[in-house]
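Below is how a single chain appears once it has passed through the pipeline. First comes the sequence as given, then the structure the pipeline wrote out for it. We keep one example in the README because the format questions we get most often are answered faster by looking than by reading.
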Amino acid sequence: MNVIKTVCIAAAAGSLALFAGCAQQGVVYADDTERVVTTDLDIQDVERFSRELAEALVSSGSLGASGEPDTVVIESYKNETSQPDIDRDRVLFPLLTTLNRSNVARAYMGTTVAGSGLKTVEAEQERSVFEGRDTGRKYDYSVLVKLYEDRARSGRTRQVSYILQFQVIDVDAGTPVWMDQRTITKQTTRSGMSG
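Resulting structure:
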């Protein structure tokens, strides 16, 4: 009888320890020695670069020089990386929001890049006509966005640079008024083991 009682108590204690251990585990964070090393592009890098480029554009003085916000259309987006699944909206949204929060621009998506229910310049133009405030002019500047990569390999070391480039075009003149880019380089080295 004592043996059965001891087994039951041990089983109950083991179950309690198991549940307590599960309750304490929660989220496990990797330290620097456990991180996965990859040359793939981290979308957070692209979002940060997009925001930095938009802030540089706002502070450049290229937009809103007349004292009134200019109408800006994100006209094209090209992803020329080996990662075609990069979410376009996550690249363009920081640009769109930074421009719209500034006092120098009203930014819209062009129909060729519009997605996720974002307001296009064409929709805004239709609303302007409907409200009787049509100026006959669609927009002042167009923005061209390009994301591409440059790959290099030397022995067991592989390096990939990702470049996010913005170019702003004056629609009337057809000339660029501002351009800039950001680059992030990632590098990995393969171990001597093959797998």
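The helical segments are 2-25, 43-59, 88-101, 121-130.

See the next section for the split statistics.
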